[in-house]
Specification:
Radius of gyration: 61 Å
Strand order of the largest sheet: 7-14-13-8-12-9-11-10
Oligomer: single chain
CATH superfamily of the largest domain: P-loop containing nucleotide triphosphate hydrolases
Shape: elongated
Number of strands: 14
Largest sheet: 8 strands, mixed
CATH architecture of the largest domain: 3-Layer(aba) Sandwich
CATH class of the largest domain: Alpha Beta
CATH topology of the largest domain: Rossmann fold
Strand content: 5-15%
Number of domains: 4
């Protein structure tokens, strides 16, 4: 690695679109992304700033043309408490306030009648919020009309008319109602471009809603009262007619009641009571008999009865002293049998005797159970006979009552009708009186608990949010545009790009020299010594390549030293002595590099000659030897000797062989590939330590390809930020021999002020102020 501010041979860094984004030996991930993002920001900051400024300007324009929206809210509580006497006298039952009831009230609040009433009450038909003239586009049109002095369109005012469907729809869009949590409180909100108008409309909606509730309750109460009055008259007539019919029937049939009941009715009631009691006894006897029989029919009846954990029915039914004694004995024997079996074994004689006794006890229990079952059967038969006898008596009594008292049934039917009509009449009369009283004291089921007040700040558009959104969107769009420009930038800007794209190393990063101070000094020196110069002396002027000797501590001079060092370290056999300086396209600074390199070598004491082989455009000859009348062509043709054609620099002993072109050379390629040219450069290789050859460009012509037999190595000059990667690739692909002999490339005319935007490592090496090294 060459440690300096110009070039590095460490090509392990990854390059994407000309930006060094990672080094394998360092941490990746977020650091790589951060470096790439910072590099993009440094390169495309103008695009990002301009896009962000435009987005912010758009946000400000939007805020200027968009009308503000103020939101005012009022709170209404449903089911306000009523006085007890009002609740008692209410004609209609109070509906509990549940979620469904709240939803109903929310729909009523947003209904068309409420909206139409508020619009008409506040005369909102011509309000700009409802007519749409306060929107962003109409406001912009109004501003443009005012700017250009155009008359505003005439609109017909609507006064005293019912609001249109469009006005109602616009009003409903701005009105909102919602339940607050799980409470019975409804939030009424309205959006308007004026804070006072928003509060006024929200309060008007709440008042209109309460008035609508009161009117609905009053209308319902009035309708119910009218219906009750009509129904009372009909019920009064029906009750009076029914009571008269009862009295007339009693008189015709001479019917007398004792204690309010007739004789036959008393007898039937008495027999019915006795029958019920007997049926209860029969049912009890049958249930007891069924339990006994169920136990007897069981295969283990005796075991059941001997078990102390019997179910409840068997235990209750067999509450017998004999069975209880037998059970106690059985349990005692069972306990002994269990203990003795564990102690002496199940086949021991004592244990077998215990089992025999237990079996006898179970037999005794079964016998006692059969006796009890027979007793229960006798009790059941007796109860059944008594029940049949009472049933016969009751049937006779009922039959006699039906035969003899048919007129009584008719009379009772008449009495029931009369009582029903009278009861209905009394109930309706009470409700009628309550409705009359309620009409004189109406009360609603809702009340305003928090009226709307003008909001202190607008709800939307939120200036901070819009500006923040504009800033973020501007930065995002700017970053997108910058990334797109970065991706589409196919120019060489970093040494790593040369390694990645051309598979060769970057020998030096040569800065763009604009130091006019040095040029004035060089011109002054030339004027001073021009009167004593020999005839074939190189002309010194203000050209860039004289910077290497005029400013030896400059970055330009340091870059030339790197090129010379790379040539010396180019390990080839035989050693590299003839170096061709070329470029992919014209005007990339190859002649400047060739002259500066030759000057530097000569100043260091080396024997060097610069040969201008650009026979199509010998620009270097025009600068260094403008008055030359003989050069390369004359030497090749034998018209002049080499010594006669060479020009020298009086200060550095730099020698220069110009190319004097008097007319366009079509056969330039043939001249460069001729044997005479090869012999000449063989001679120069012997005479000089270094032979620097200024060659034509690669891309437009084929001249460079003809020099491969006598050129030891090539240096490719690439103009920073101007030369396309694909162009250089194509030029080298079409000249494979040149590519194979390539020593390296020089990135020329680099803008050192912005190079750090593309390669962060260049920003930390040396300062670039006035193109002078801060460290030598």
């Amino acid at each position: 690695m060459y440690h300096g501010n110009i070039v590095t041979n460490d090509f392990s860094r990854a390059v994407v679109n000309g930006t060094v984004i990672a080094e394998p030996e360092e941490e990746g991930g977020f650091r790589q992304f951060l470096e790439a993002a910072l590099g993009l920001a440094r390169r495309q900051y103008l695009v990002i700033l301009i896009t962000t400024a435009m987005a912010l300007a758009g946000s400000i324009i939007y805020l200027r043309i968009t009308p503000p929206t103020y939101k005012a809210t009022a709170k209404v509580l449903l089911e306000s408490p009523k006085a007890p006497f009002i609740q008692q006298q209410s004609l209609m039952a109070a509906t509990p306030v549940d979620r469904a009831q709240v939803e109903n009230q929310l729909e009523i609040l947003k209904s068309k009648p409420i909206a139409a009433a508020v619009i008409k009450k506040l005369n909102l038909a011509n309000d700009p919020d409802l007519t749409g003239t306060n929107q962003a586009l109409p406001r912009l049109q109004a501003s443009l009309r005012k700017m250009f002095g155009l008359p505003a369109p005439k609109s017909m005012p609507q006064t005293g008319q019912d609001p249109s469907e469009e006005d109602i729809a616009a009003f409903q869009d701005r009105l909102a109602s919602a339940q607050i949590g799980m409470s019975n409180v409804i939030l009424i909100s309205f959006n308007a471009s004026n804070a006072e108008r928003a509060a006024q409309v929200a309060n008007a909606v709440a008042d209109t809603y309460l008035d609508d509730q009161m009117n609905a309750k009053f209308d319902a109460s009035r309708t119910a009262t009218a219906w009750l009055q009509k129904r009372l008259a009909e019920l009064g007539r029906q009750a009076l007619t029914s009571e008269r019919a009862v009295n007339e029937f009693k008189l015709r049939n001479n019917m007398v009641a004792i204690g309010g009941n007739f004789m036959d009715d008393q007898q039937v009631k008495e027999l019915n009571s006795r029958l019920v009691a007997v049926r209860e006894k029969t049912s009890d006897a049958l249930a007891r008999l069924n339990r006994y029989e169920a136990v007897l029919h069981s295969d283990s009846a005796a075991v059941k009865l001997s078990n102390p954990d019997l179910d409840a029915p068997v235990s209750d039914s067999l509450n017998n002293q004999i069975i209880n004694n037998l059970r106690q004995q059985y349990l005692e024997y069972a306990r002994r049998e269990s203990e003795w079996s564990a102690r002496y074994g199940r086949n021991h004689l004592a244990v077998v005797n215990l089992r025999t006794k237990m079996k006898d006890i179970r037999t005794s229990i079964a016998a006692e159970l059969r006796r009890l079952a027979e007793t229960s059967r006798n009790d059941y038969e007796t109860a059944r006979q008594r029940e049949n006898a009472i049933e016969k008596q009751l049937a006779n009594a009922v039959s006699q009552s039906q035969v003899t008292n048919s007129s009584e049934l008719t009379m009772r039917d008449l009495e029931m009708n009369a009582k029903s009509y009278r009861s209905l009449f009394d109930s309706f009369l009470q409700q009628y009186m309550q409705s009359i009283q309620q009409q004189s004291f109406p009360i609603g089921d809702a009340r305003v608990i928090s009226p709307a007040s003008p909001p202190q700040s607008k709800t939307k558009p939120r200036s901070s949010l819009i500006l923040a959104l504009g800033l973020v969107c501007g930065l995002a769009i700017g970053a997108a545009f910058g990334t797109m420009r970065d991706v589409m930038d196919r120019m060489f800007r970093t040494p790593a790009q040369i390694k990645s794209a051309l598979q060769t190393r970057c020998l030096a990063l040569v800065p763009l020299v604009e130091d006019k101070t040095h040029r004035k000094e060089a011109a002054r020196r030339q004027i001073t010594i021009s009167g004593v110069l020999p005839r074939q002396t190189i002309t010194r002027g203000s050209d860039t390549f004289w910077t290497a000797s005029g400013m030896p501590l400059s970055h330009f001079a340091e870059a030339i030293r790197f090129i010379k060092l790379a040539i010396n370290q180019n390990s080839t056999i035989p050693p590299t002595k003839v170096i061709g300086i070329t470029s992919a396209r014209p005007n990339e600074g190859k002649s400047t590099i060739a002259a500066a390199l030759g000057e530097h070598i000569a100043q260091a004491g080396g024997r060097v000659i610069v040969v201008d082989c650009d026979l199509r455009n010998p620009s270097l000859s025009a600068i260094l030897a403008p008055n030359a009348d003989a050069g390369l062509l004359e030497v090749l043709s034998g018209k002049r000797s080499l010594e006669e054609a060479i020009w020298r620099d009086s200060k550095t002993d730099l020698e220069f062989l110009p190319a004097v072109i008097r007319s366009s050379l079509v056969q330039a390629c043939d001249i460069l590939s001729a044997e005479a040219t090869g012999r000449l450069f063989d001679e120069l290789r012997v005479l000089y330590d270094y032979v620097i050859v200024d060659l034509p460009p690669l891309e437009p012509i084929a001249d460079v390809r003809a020099t491969t037999p006598w050129i030891d190595g090539y240096i490719l000059t690439i103009e920073w930020g101007r030369t396309n990667i694909d162009v250089v690739r194509h030029a080298l692909d079409t000249a494979p021999d040149v590519h194979r002999a390539l020593i390296g490339a020089v990135l020329n005319k680099a803008d050192m002020k912005v190079i750090g935007r593309y390669d962060s490592s260049e920003r930390h090496r040396y300062g670039y102020k006035n193109h002078t090294l801060k460290a030598a």
